[in-house]
């Protein structure tokens, strides 16, 4: 940087010397012109002639000043490198473009838990995959207690309806269709039932300690023989049974048997 300034200064000094020489030369020319009329008075010049001489003198001076840049002040040595362009900044959305997050957010859909699918069931044995047995609905009873049992008959277990209700006892027959004795273990098949009366909301069958409860029955049924089974639910006192929907529940979805 220091060397550049010294070189620039040297060029200016050289230009000034040449400019002084040009001025001396011009003055000599004018003196010679004036000396031509020696002893006579300085001729009068018109304003136009004076302007012509002035322009000529300026032209001569500029001609010999090759460092003249045509500007009043030479600022080339003071100019600095152009500043790098400002980096483009990300456009900020205007207030009009900005929206309320609550309004712009897409509405969240509420996912409802699907209801258990229900299909018509052909048979109990078909739904639970019970081999060598068939099940048949044989009717129902409305009673305050089960089993009724004759007086003096010993009963292992019995149950009574709660106040304001009565027991709806559904009767089924399980028949061994094979030629050999077979053990019927309903608990191992995970049998679960729901009973709906007159189109009302279904209620799960009562879990009991009855030996003939179809959900928990386990016993050996002789070849060609059968076993009487029941499924019980409580219904309001005075209910008149018109329709009964018997729902089989398991891992493959529910199935409905319309008993009547």
List segments where confidence is low: pLDDT < 50 over at least 5 consecutive residues: 31-41, 110-114, 150-154
Shape: rod-shaped
Q: Which band does the percent of strand residues land in?
A: 25-35%
Strand order of the largest sheet: 1-12-11-7-8
Describe the structure.
The chain is α+β, with helices and mostly antiparallel strands and about 260 residues long. It has two domains: about 1-35 and about 45-70; about 120-260, Immunoglobulin-like. Helices cover about 25% and strands about 25% of the residues. The protein has helices spanning about 1-35, 45-65, 100-105, 125-130; strands spanning about 120, 135-145, 145, 160, 165-175, 180-185, 190-195, 205, 220, 225-235, 245-250, 255-260. The protein has a five-stranded mixed beta sheet, with no helix packed on it. A three-stranded antiparallel beta sheet has the order 2-5-10, with no helix packed on it. A hairpin with a 5-residue loop joins strand 7 (about 190-195) and strand 8 (about 205). Helix 1 (about 1-35) runs antiparallel to helix 2 (about 45-65). The longest helix has about 35 residues, at about 1-35. It is rod-shaped. The two termini are about 110 Å apart. The model is unreliable at about 30-40, about 110-115 and about 150-155 (pLDDT under 50).
Secondary structure topology:
Elements: H1 2-35, H2 47-64, H3 101-104, E1 118-120, H4 124-128, E2 133-143, E3 145-146, E4 159-160, E5 165-176, E6 182-185, E7 192-197, E8 203-204, E9 218-221, E10 226-236, E11 244-249, E12 254-258
Parallel strand pairs: 1-12
Antiparallel strand pairs: 2-5, 3-4, 5-10, 6-9, 7-8, 7-11, 11-12
Helix pairs in contact: 1-2
